[in-house]
Amino acid sequence: MSNASYPITEETIGQVTHFENAPQWIYEVDNPYLHGVYAPTVDEMAVDELEVTGELPEGIYGAYYRNGPNTIHKPTGLHHPFDGDGMVHAVYFQDGKASYRNSYIHTAGYLLEKEEGRAMWPGVMGTFDFSLPEFPIKDTCNTDVTWYAGKLMPTWYHAGRPHKMDPLSLENLGEYSLPGRTRTNMSAHNHVDWNTGEMLFMDYGDEAPFMTYGVANADGTLRSEVPIELPGPRRPHDLGFTTNYTILHDLPLFHDANLLRRHGKMVLDFHRDIPARFGIIPRYGDSADIRWFECEPCFVLHISNSWEEGDWIVMDGCRSANPLRQPEGGGELAHMLVYMRNETNNYRWRFNLKTGEVREGDIDDLNTEFNKSNQMFHGVKTQYAYHQHIPLLHENGHTLRFNGLVKYNNETGQYDKWDYGDGVFGSEAAFAPVKGATRDSDEDDGYVITMVTDSNTWKSEALVFDARDITLGPIARVKLPQRVPAGFHATWARGEDLYT
Ligand SMILES: [Fe+2]
């Protein structure tokens, strides 16, 4: 059975390969995001003392976590990558050795569908069914993952319910509800300030005030949460923060909530006549303290870092000037396919708190995203960001794939690049500061870690780069015990927090 007229061919995703550790129904579904490097891996395992090519320095001390979709049951309708059951893959580093563990995230949807043995919810492409228990579409918690207050916290793109996992065993500990908080949902891309241990987060939805912004204390309790009034329902994705301020996003890519209620379909529109707005609020500020800055219309997925420079707030991230391009084929999957074909570039915004002036512009034009920087320096000035290079359509970029690691110097716009190799695709990287690093250390004193899968052999590895010079290639390759499909976000937990 096919649910779309989109050909799964060597040109679009590579050879369709039959995997024993994938659910066999995928071969009945004509959707590129269920095949090749996206084919779900349903096995869960823990393996110690992984084989390493090269050498793991003692300075790599902590764990790399990556979240992503691993769909279990055959979808009832159209399948989008945000619909796949969330799974965390982890690689632990200590004493020059590495181990691997992976686990599904036990969301309400995962547990109920496991009991029933079938898919029970529609996915994000609808139709949203508001009569279903729990939620109108499946909340998979498959997008982001954060280490916060001693626990791992996976979250979902559509501001779903965050979950809690033991960071060492990956044991599921239920939904993550902050004591004192009345709301249950939280967006992906909450941020932990390693300098204070606090977590900054937001939630958004279709009911006024359409956004809330909160700060959680280092001990896992709520400090504050305030309503942020937006002109209507929005789909923001990330936030920026400095030592004293948080930067919230109100972007002109959104849907009509009345249409969603009436027809059960979320149709995103890019409103080219509406400016992008960034709201700067003191970290512990109240709703009235927010100050909005208007910028050129755009959509923004991910922020690399933000900081204060005198009266200025500087925010680096990847920006899309044209997030909804015209689909060219793909049948019912057309809009999803074109939306997932990320076209973005490295960009800098500057906001003057005294005069209200805005300055913005490209840092570079390379097609990159899934940008990360050294979390030790989040909130204060940084130079470097580590992006994934994304092939454009004419470069065989029919689907979202990462074929190289890019280290940017955002001061100069210069970059170094490491190509993963023909048919080898990576994951979002995480920056691992060298063991014992502080803010007095060099910003790039540490390692950049990613997971890759080679579609020539279907073997997966964790690659470890010396962050000072990624052009040397990986200093260590850690062989993973199973194929790891492409996914979304990754994070690093420091051994100092994890093992002591
Ligand atoms: Fe994201």
From TrEMBL:
Cofactor note: Binds 1 Fe(2+) ion per subunit.
UniProt cross-references to PANTHER family, sorted A to Z: BETA-CAROTENE DIOXYGENASE (PTHR10543), CAROTENOID 9,10(9',10')-CLEAVAGE DIOXYGENASE 1 (PTHR10543:SF89)
Gene Ontology terms for molecular function: carotenoid dioxygenase activity; metal ion binding
Protein name per the record: Dioxygenase
Cofactor: Fe(2+)
GO biological process, one term: carotene catabolic process
Pfam (any one): RPE65
UniProt record similarity statement: Belongs to the carotenoid oxygenase family.
Organism of derivation: Pseudohalioglobus lutimaris
Keywords: Dioxygenase, Iron, Metal-binding, Oxidoreductase
Keyword Membrane: no
Binding site for Fe cation: H189, H237, H302, H489
Record has Iron as a keyword: yes
